[in-house]
Model the fold of this input.
Amino acid sequence: MVVMKMKFPFQKRVKLAQGLWLLSWCATVAGAITFTLGCILKTELRRRAEVMDNSDVHVVPNTLMIVGLASLGINIFASKICQDALDAERFPRWKNMLKPYFAVSCFFTVLMLLAVIMSYAMKGSLESSLKVGLKNGIRFYKDTDTPGRCFQKQNIDRLQMEFQCCGNNDFRDWFEVQWISNRYLDFSSKEVKDRIKSNVDGRYLLDGVPFSCCNPSSPRPCIQYQLTNNSAHFNYEYQTEELNLYLRGCREALVSYFMGLMNTIGAGVLSVFLLQGSVLVSLRFLQTAMEAVAGNENTEIETEGYLLEKSVKDTVMEFIEPVMQFFLFKNQVGEGSSEAPADP
Amino acid sequence: MVLLKIKFTQQRRVHLAQGLWLLSWTAVIWGAIIFCLGVYLKMELLRRDEVMDNTEIHVVPNILMIVGLASIGTNWVASCVCQDSLDATRFPRWKVLLLGWFAVAAVLCCLLISVVALSFAVQGRLEESLKVGLRNGIRFYKDTDVPGRCYQKETIDRLQMEFRCCGNNNFKDWFEVQWVSSRYLNFTSKDVKDRIRSNVDGRYLLDGVPFSCCNPSSPRPCLRYTLTDNNAHFNYEYQSEELNLYSRGCRQALTDYYMELMNSTGPVVLSVILIQMSVLLGMRYLQTAVEGIMALEDPEGESDGFLLEKGVKETMEDLKVKALILLQFWLVDPIAPEGSSEDADLEKAEKEASPTPAS
Done:
């Protein structure tokens, strides 16, 4: 049972070949755009690599770049096939290549769809990576004299200023770490000694935040220290103060930024996927229509084009059978050799 | 004596027309680029409008935009003329227009040269404008409850963070103004009362700066209050501390930024001047060569192309005479009814000679 049979008179074949040639060049451009989008996403992720714990999310831009390049090749190939399609002498030389070509193209098209799905599904992984990365960044904020960590302070400060966020979940994360280095603490002062004695680990904790948490939109000069003490500042109430510092946590800010970027890219790549799919379907129709013409003296007869010669199930079995046979053969050999030693 | 005469065979004329057509389309694209540059510069200046006192510097992007548009139009006309130049029937209709075209193209070149000169000369005016604008911005920093000034604080904060600068000349400018609003001062506290009494105007002055002056590259958490007091902070020395705050003043930072922007347009404008002048010269040669060939009535023959028919001096004299005649003509007409020119006298004499209807 043939899948999706269509009649193709000569004129329709010509129009199909011409339209497909144009479509494949559009798809080539779309493939290049996909590659560019993958590069952009990769660059953006690498810029913030220091506040990410792992690079699991990099699988999305990597896949996009691979698929973009493959799509370029596939569509250039398709346009060349179109050019030769209506020429009865030049078309047969493509015959052998077409089956593996379709297999490879289908694989990469499915990979494109997977990339789109992943760009929506990677949110959880991104969030946990940022959670750990930001926690470390805040912990090592004070270590500007430790090699390998000396730029953490600058990174976190610039991150908080650029994304207008403070801390991991919110600004209170800064209350739980010592973010002032011991180099700048006067250990003979009573206040410092009290604070250090007040917790088990002997850390200098305070209810203050770095300057990069300050919100420029506040009508009041920024209050950074003694945030929980209402009487320390005139006309100040800790619970109702909203504009003084950035309220959003940096994890939330970064997740929404990257998810926004990936969702936009995903939507674009979805349309490229549809374009690519239509190129492949049209090429299949053109191939089957032209193959029916081959051998005929009159090249202007009406032919039939179809997607699959047998039904979907049969075609799948056709592809899988050689693979299954290969595994079965291996199994049989294995069984044979395991039986052999048993013989006396 | 003809200026810069060149012989033009038929082939050479065709090459000239084709080359000039291509060159004029290149000039159209460059004109569009100049226009876009002008728009970009204007937008950048408008973004920082609030810290500038006057808009004198806007003359540079305005001229760039006008020149860009005029250049697009002029060179498009040039390409049309080129297309028609080798067709003897269509070229004559451009004859009258060409004189005007040359005048416009010459004016364009002059404007472009003036833009290059202006972009260097305007630096002093820019600095003055920024000096006053920033001083006001710093003075009104605290007035977040005054309509018209409520965004000064946010503007100055974002400016200092973006350009990595502090104050007008340096961070000490903040010591001379009250930048903490009275709404947030506890007037019963001793510290506040002392500070207010310490100066004539009764302002709350302190040796501190806003948070936007803090430098993230500093290894130490930012110190922004009691800056001049070495004892107030552990391991701190006011004179030798360099990384804590931004050391550059915002006037310097903004001037550098805008001068760099305007200087980077310099090479583009210079190349447009060169292209425009070559289009001008090419057009003149093409015009004279084609007119010469049309006078000879042999379309395939040779003709002379030149820049000026007479020498430079004689051409200037000619132009002067023509201009005077035009001026006289223009002056005579409005004054004709009661004028004392010879024409008016002649008319009067004629009237007296002929019998009047009344008599």
